[in-house]
Amino acid sequence: MADRKGRHDRATRRLWAALALPGTFWLIALFLVPFYAVMAVAFSGSINIFGEPNPAWNPLDWQFTTFNNVISESVSGAYREVWIRTGLYSVVALLICVVVGYPVAYYTARLAGKRRGLVLALILAPWWINYITRMLAWVNLLQDDGYVNKALGVFGIAPVSWLSGNAYTVVIALAYGYLPFFIIPLYASLDRIDPRLLEASRDLGVGPVRTFVRVTLPLSKMGLITALVITALPMAGDYYTNTIVSGSPNTNMIGNQIELFLLQGPLKNFGASLVLLLSLVLMFFMAYYLILTQRASRDAR
Amino acid sequence: MTATGAPSRAAAGPGRVTKRVPPWRNPWRRPYVLGAITWLYILWSLVPVLIAVQFSFNGGRSRSTWQGFSTQWYCCAEGSVGEDPSLLLALENSLILGAVTVLVATPLGVMLALGLTRWRSRSSQVANGIALVPLVTPEIVLGSALYLVMVNLYQFVPLGRPAMLLGHVTFSVSYVLVIVRSRLLSIGRDYEEAARDLGASPLQAIRTILLPLLMPSVFASAMIVFATSLDDFVVSQFLFGDASNITVPIKLYTAVRASPTPALNALATLLLVGSFLALVLAYVGLRARRRGTRSALDDLADYG
Q1: Is residue B4 assigned to a domain?
Q2: Mean pLDDT of B124-144
Q3: N-to-C CA span, chain A
Q4: Is residue B15's pLDDT more than 50?
Q5: Percent of chain B residues topping a pLDDT of 90
Q6: Which residues of B, range 224-263, sit inside 8 Å of A by Cβ?
Q7: In a mutagenesis test of the A interface, which of B21, B24, B28, B41 is the best target, namely the one with the most A β-carbons within 10 Å?
Q8: How far apart are the first and last CA of chain B?
């Protein structure tokens, strides 16, 4: 057995490496190198005739003036408010995700019974509906003469101008947009809990609430953290939700600032510095998530 | 959910316990509250989209007042999807980009999955880590990094369709890798080793044994890549260059606050139909691969 395995390994190892090569090369050229390009632009020391930064490809040429400038503006300056707003909107939207998403995931995984397939399909559906389309749908409803204001009118509530730079519209839109991405990983983890554990708790006379707090919640902790990380990462860099449902600089998040610098002006080194800073902030979450998935895939082998 | 159902359930449940404990202590009580929250959430998440689809069939120009049924915004009123060149162009660009992304990303990802799963060494561990990072990278970081590298270093790749293709393949490869690898791990190594013992060359073993076994997951990942490429907004927006390369999500984004007619809803509906078809096919593919043990919906849920 060992001999046969050894023979095969020797003969095929080169083949496996060769198969992995093109994809690995692709990811190096189009993932690692681009990230280096962000650093080269952020640490650029000179500008060209259009006022755009010349990328500094050689680390010896790196100048940190812009980057330091961006950091100090972020700590106590023009971007401070934008960062705080980004954090605040994300935290509130994530809280809504937990309050709405946990019951939904729990019900689907444990209690939906015969209708489980249907409920799961309906919960998966928004995941595959284009994000911009889902926002477009809300823009229709939230028009000044849209269905939402008409519905409020029935109860005698004056029409609200939802789409003109309201913080709460942005937060609710973020929660609405990212809830499907939150629910599914949580559902997967709740689904994996052995029902016998809950039955044991029940048989020992523990009520539903304490069973939930003592058994289900601790067992789904990892799933909850995964769901929060998966949702928080794109949410922190979101700019399109904001543009679509608000469009006002009063609700700008850090993503809007990045998009503004990179795509709508010459100050690409400022944009690149903000991308670096955002990546640094999110790096912790990304690394955490990667370690978790690596561990899970090792267990699966 | 009616009151008349209650006695029969109490009788069917484990007997008298239900009568002694108050309802909040009764573990066999039907989960009315959680059920209501779930169904309300489903309504909240889907009804707005259904209303948007409904307005794509509106008889008038309004996107907030229903004026009768008509298919004029698909074809052939002035400004409809069939008549407005910019909307048609967006649709065409999206479909071509999605198809080419599938053709490039699927083989690349399958090869990567085969290589990284079976080839065990320190460098494969590193490559494995790199391959998963795009899945957790916020799109704005990936989009801006690709934009800066195309503009500053890979100047031979013009912004537009070529740059968008490279970008879409980059995030799609990781999807293919994850889906195909989970199938590879569940197949195990026995079949290919048997083939090798019977005299097959390594390549023959892959071609005649592994690939047919992997086919359903390859197909499913191709469909998921197509749907993801159709839906992508951020990477496309950073790389599309000028209006001639606009895709459907970019068109929706730029037009949503500018010139709202139901034609925009019609365009969104067509995008919805496109990715829905791709996913139904992916679902069928995943179902073909597992009979009974777990529902294919659970698999789809895992691939996020």
Answers
A1: yes
A2: 82
A3: 20
A4: no
A5: 29
A6: 227, 230-231, 233-234, 237-238, 248-249, 252-253, 256-257, 260
A7: B41
A8: 33
Q: What is the pLDDT of residue A238?
A: 92
Ramachandran assignment for A25, one of left (phi > 0), alpha (psi -120 to 50 degrees), beta (any other): alpha
B37 and B11 within one domain: no
Q: What is the DSSP letter of B154?
A: -
Domain shared by B128 and B49, yes or no: no
The pLDDT value recorded for residue B6 is: 42
Which tens digit of pLDDT belongs to each residue from A87-126? 999 999 999 999 999 999 998 888 777 788 888 888 888 8
Q: Using CB atoms, pick whichever of B136, B230, B234 lies closest to residue A289.
A: B136
Residue B207 three-state SS:
helix
Instruction: Give A245→chain B minimum CA distance, Å.
Output: 9
Strand partners, B286: none
Residue B300 pLDDT? 60
Contact A124 B297 (CB under 8 A): yes
The number of folded domains in chain A is 1
* Residue A19 in domain: no
**Do B92 and B37 share a domain, yes or no?**
no
Give the pLDDT confidence score for residue A139 in this predicted structure. 87
- pTM of the entire predicted model: 0.85
Average pLDDT over residues B238-249: 90
Place of tokens 């259009």: A50
**Are residues B279 and B180 part of one domain?**
yes
Domain that includes residue A149, residue range: 79-264
Distance of residue A22 Cα from the nearest chain B Cα, in angstroms: 7
Q: Which two tokens stand for residue A66?
A: 């812009």
CA distance B88 to B251: 10
Is residue A120 domain-resident? yes
A198 domain-assigned: yes
Nearest Cα of chain A lies from the Cα of B1 at a distance, in angstroms, of 13
Mean pLDDT of A163-174: 89
ipTM of this complex: 0.87
Q: Which two tokens stand for residue A159?
A: 């029409």
How large is the average pLDDT for residues A24-29?
A: 89
Q: Are residues B123 and B211 in the same domain?
A: yes
Task: Please indicate, yes or no, if residue A61 is contained in any of the structural domains.
Answer: no
- Rounded to 5°, angle at Cα A98 from A97 and A103: 105
As a whole number of Å, the CA-based R_g of chain A is: 25
**Cβ pair A278, A233 in contact under 8 A:** no
Give the whole-angstrom CA distance, residue B143 versus residue B164: 10
